[in-house]
Amino acid sequence: MQRRVGRPAVPVLSREVIARAALTLIDDVGAEGFSLAALGKRLGVRPSSFYNHVTGKDDILAGVRELVSDSIDARMFTELPWDEAMARWARGYRDAFAAHPPVISLLATTPVSGALRTLRMYDQVVTGLERGGWPSEMVIPVMVAVESFILGSALDVVAPPTMFDPGPLSADVPAFASAVAARDASAAEGGRPPADLAFEVGLASMIEGLRGALRSLESTR
pTM of the full predicted structure? Predict the structure, then answer.
């Protein structure tokens, strides 16, 4: 009698499979709930079996970083002026991490080494900034400064909509309450979340400031 071919009792592991399961787990339970033991339980395997495919937790998180950053397009840095490219990159970057906010705290303190696909994305950004006239020693500080703003903005996207609502204390802080109401009215009129208003104001201000910084650097050369 021919034996029926069924699904394997345990998943066929690979670095990609492990990373995808880790990303789903982090999305479900948050950064504080992520561990190799929890990931092993999610995949139905012993954590020791991971080491046939990854070097450890940091390597898994490198894979998670790659999965999130895969959707961030940086190709515009090869075609557009650095400031236009930076604005487009920032918007795509925010969207990518806003879709997976729990990973931000984990990846913010995990070295980027091992995340080759992410490093290639950064390489495009660096090349575009250098082509735009930024000196090499300033490129990483510029990129990290913008990235820090982006990640904070990604968290703002998923913050409660009433984050700044003073509620019953409105009468005690009339200027603040009025400003929040005006912000909400403007956002509603434009059909955009309040977080978008803050992001666009901050992004425009940051890029304008960077343009000024670059002009100052060029004037001293």
Answer: 0.89
Q: Give 55's DSSP letter.
A: S
Structure tokens at 53: 């495919």
Q: ∠23-194-176 over CA atoms, to 5°?
A: 125
- Residue 28 CA to residue 30 CA, distance in Å, equals 6
Q: Which two tokens stand for residue 82?
A: 């650095």
* Distance (Å, whole) CA 145 – CA 209: 12
The three-class DSSP label of residue 8 is coil
At residue 7, what is the residue type? R
The span from the CA of 68 to the CA of 112, in Å, is: 13
String of DSSP letters for 93-110: HHHHHHTSTTHHHHHTTS
- For the stretch 186-195, pLDDT in tens is 999 999 999 9
For 62-90, the pLDDT digits (tens) are 999 999 999 999 999 999 999 999 999 99
Q: What is the pLDDT of residue 221?
A: 78
- Count of all residues that appear for the chain in the document: 221
